Amino acid sequence: xxxxxxxxxxxxxxxAWESWSVWSVSVAAGVAAAIGTELYGLLxxxxxxxxxxxxxxxxxxxPITVGMFAMGTAVSLSVGTLLAVLLARFATRxxxxxxxxxxxxxxxxxxxxxxxxxxxxxxKAMLCGAHVVAAAIVVPVVVRRLASAPGRGRDARG
Length: 158
Fold this sequence. Notes:
The protein is built from 5 helices and 2 strands. The chain has helices at about 20-45, 70-90, 95-110, 110-115, 120-145; strands spanning about 50-55, 60-65. Strands 1-2 form a two-stranded antiparallel sheet. Strand 1 and strand 2 (about 60-65) form a beta hairpin.
C-alpha cells in the first residue's frame, strides 16, 4: 500500500512549508532573496553598471563588492523575521499587517540608494531594484505563511 499523498488541484491541505514555523519560512525566503539579489548584482555588474556608491551625503563613493547584496539582504531579513514572528503572535491579522508594513519599509529603504552621495543614477536605480527583488521574493512567501497562522492569542508557532 502506498501511503505517499500527492496533492491534486482539489486538495485543500496546506503546502508542506505552511507547517513550518514563521521564523523558518522567513529565513528560508531570506536565503532565497540573498541569492536572488546577489545574482541580480552580478548581472548588473556584467552589464556595466558602476559598482560604487556613497553613503547619504557622502563626498566619495566606495566599491560595492561581491557579497554585499547578500549581506544587505541578510541584515534586512533579521528585522523582517522579527516583525513576522511578533505579528504572528500578537496581531489580529498578521498577514495583512505584515504586507502593509513591508511595503512601507521597502519604499523607505530606497532612501539610502536615492540619496547616496557621489553615486551614478544608474547605480542608484540598480540598488533600488535590488530592494524590490528582495521584497518580491520574501514578502509573498511570508504573507502566505502568516495567513495560515492561527492568529492572536493562539499558538502561532513563531
